[in-house]
Design a protein that fits this description.
The chain is of the alpha/beta class and 208 residues long. It has a single domain, classed as Alpha-Beta Barrel (TIM Barrel). The chain contains ten helices and eight strands.
Amino acid sequence: MKTLSALRDDRVIAVVRAPSIPDAAALCAALAAGGITWTEFTCTTPEVTTHLRRAARAGHRVAVGTVLTAEQAERGVAAGASFLVTPGCRPEVAEAAGAAGVPVVLGALTPTEVARAVDLGAAAVKIFPARAFGPGYFKDLRGPYPDVPLVASGGVNAGNAAEFLGQGALAVCAGTDVVPPEAVAAGDWAEITRRARAFTAACGAAQA
């Protein structure tokens, strides 16, 4: 799958949660300048479809996250999202993704939930919150699920991202460590580029 292959190569998704985003395309450009080329705009952000549309039209790789309903999924896809992300196993979102022909990353925490996400057709499974059990948990999950792509989300930062990747995560989600809401709302693109660069540099330790 093209999207999955790109995620495996790039390894980082910036997850944006902010009260306002003055320029979604400029935000994505700032992240890309720091080495993060995937941006997830969440349904908890006001006017999320507007931000998705503007960023996608500018040629950026975008996903829509915190998707809880089929309607949110359909709107996100229509706005240009390359894939959908949920915080938990959401059958109606998986069904909507299948109908639209886009990948879905379903959220899970326990081994049973991982199996459920796979059964629902998840292209990858987001382990959330990853901080709950730490990087070693990914190594444990690789035992029964050696072929399931796992994404670490929740509590991932520059200090532990390399370890999550080293223990078997396909990719990690960078949240407030890279895109703090106040910096996004202020349009402080230079600061966001600096943070993205520091995060991706830290991830490089996983290849050492």
